[in-house]
């Protein structure tokens, strides 16, 4: 399936039903389809052909997201660009991915003007709103093209659908090539792994997280079910809680750091969350203590584990598996990443390519039609990620005898202190069990005695204070003195990426 096929499938179930809702305004499926037709014809008129790369630079916005379906209808390749990137990173992405057209919101006009001189491959610039500048098409100018009926396009399942940048925090960004088959596998696994409405009811998905990342591709199974996407333009936890009962939201996704903010919000316990069927969490490990709190105060939590190279659905833990048969919280499984999904083979491998037995720790590797076709114009990185015939995730973990997958750390985040391997996520989970801690990050810093010392930076809960000595004792009681932090810093907030992940590189730079 193409990306636009999810929209068209939803439209076949009811063209007049709501598709996108933002700030009280609703667009029907028929309206979004018509807009995608206009965009497709406009792109073709401006020289876009099958396989051309078209980028979209915008915050969460229904018009910008509707353009994605027009790009797909023209058989072009969607290149999402995160507006919170630095200008240099976006210039790098647009250049490396050979983008020919950029559609952007006026809020990012200054950013675009800074990078335009260095992007000669882009021949068409389109500003989606407001008055455009010289050599830039306004939205109306872009759409003023002769319409000649459906665009005759022949596509194959393995045609490229999107190129997603991995981010430049550890070097130049790599372009993850996702095909129609990759996204179809992800969508199928989502629909088979989690609860969705039945008997003609439609899902309602609340998108607070950026549509350029997980929140965007999770829209595809909702659209294929004829559901409604409620799009939040700005991340506001209070508004998030208000919108759930207002729209009877059934599905949503947030990374753990934002879920911690929801748990700390004073309106949470007074909010009617009875419509929720599936509150997805992922993108980073979540504290089992906070997860248990979320199960009691929010409801049906649902974990997903994936990565850009194998989107979203490597393993899952659906809502029902968070609790035992008697309704009590299944504390023994909350530390896990769930079970491998039916269309993904998961194994654990050592550095020499030997597959390990259950309970043995090594790198998590997978085989599946979920896995990307490779990195764009980067055969060396593609070969490295597919050593020994498996896709390498870069995560350290193990499978237990019951088939649960446990992730203990990113390989690059493991700390070797005094000759012992310390996994930062294990220390973070112990710290997050303290009721005064809202969020934290654990890193290793050079140390003359230990080689590396374990360092924690913690963010207190609102109106709470943290005593580093008391917190150190608290952690030692749970995981022992070797793994306990040798240094604890208390910060009012932690540096975060565009999608809410804590930036350990920034913390290391500040403390190193």
Overview of the structural elements:
With 512 residues, this protein is α/β, with parallel strands linked by helices. It has three domains: 151 residues, Rossmann fold (3-Layer(aba) Sandwich), CATH 3.40.50.980; 175 residues, Rossmann fold, CATH 3.40.50; 98 residues, ANL, C-terminal domain (GMP Synthetase, Chain A, domain 3, 2-Layer Sandwich), CATH 3.30.300. 29% of the residues lie in helices and 27% in strands. The chain is built from 16 helices and 26 strands. A nine-stranded mixed sheet has the order 2-1-11-10-12-13-14-15-16, sandwiched between helices. Helix 2 packs across helix 3 and helix 4 crosses helix 5. The longest helix has 17 residues. The protein starts with a helix and ends with a helix.
What does the secondary structure layout of this molecule look like, with pairings?
Layout: H1 3-12, E1 18-22, E2 25-28, H2 29-45, E3 53-57, H3 62-73, E4 77-81, H4 87-96, E5 99-104, H5 109-115, E6 124-127, E7 137-138, H6 139-143, E8 160-165, E9 175-179, H7 180-193, E10 204-207, H8 214-217, H9 219-224, E11 228-231, H10 237-247, E12 251-254, H11 256-264, E13 278-281, H12 288-297, E14 301-307, E15 310-317, E16 339-340, E17 344-349, E18 362-368, E19 374-375, H13 379-385, E20 391-399, E21 405-410, E22 415-417, E23 420-422, H14 424-432, E24 437-447, E25 451-460, H15 468-479, E26 487-490, H16 504-511
Parallel strand pairs: 1-11, 3-4, 3-5, 5-6, 6-7, 10-11, 10-12, 12-13, 13-14, 25-26
Antiparallel strand pairs: 1-2, 8-9, 9-19, 14-15, 15-16, 17-18, 18-20, 20-21, 22-23, 24-25
Helix pairs in contact: 1-2, 2-3, 4-5, 14-15
